[in-house]
Amino acid sequence: MIGNITGHLAGAAAAWAAFVVEGAVFYVGLLVYAMVADTGTGGPLAGPLLVLLAGVLGVGLVPLLFVPASIAGQVAAKNGRLLVKLLIALAVAAVLAAIYVAVVAVATDVPIADAVLACLGGVVAVLIPTAVYVSAAHGVLKIMPVRRSSASI
Fold this sequence. Notes:
The protein is an all-alpha fold. Helix 1 runs antiparallel to helix 2, helix 2 crosses helix 3 and helix 2 crosses helix 4 (112-143). It has helices at residues 2-36, 46-76, 82-107, 112-143. It has one domain (2-143). 81% of the residues lie in helices and 0% in strands. The protein is globular. Keywords: Membrane, Transmembrane, Transmembrane helix. The chain crosses the membrane at residues 12-36, 48-71, 83-103, 115-141.
């Protein structure tokens, strides 16, 4: 039980960190594009604000997306195989991300073509943090020793 909780806490922290790193990488990509296209770079606070936004969004996505996806993968792979956990978790995370982005798109009256592109972007954005979450949780479960209660001996 303790190993399971510890695994999920480690996975949550790793997924959040991966999401923040994605925000920084996304900013660098936008900065390179702005320099190549000779447009405005967004000012000196654009990068830190984008990373801060990714951090805040990551805090919300951990309990709403990464934890359910990881738990679904863990339940589906009772034998503990990482590949099965990973595939199930990635599928669940992709579906949840698409649903969340579609709900926001409908609530903000986004055109359908833009909503579909946003859904695809949301799906791509959660794949790496989900994989990091599942891998970290799986690694902690492998490292933690299995403790048996005295009643089962």
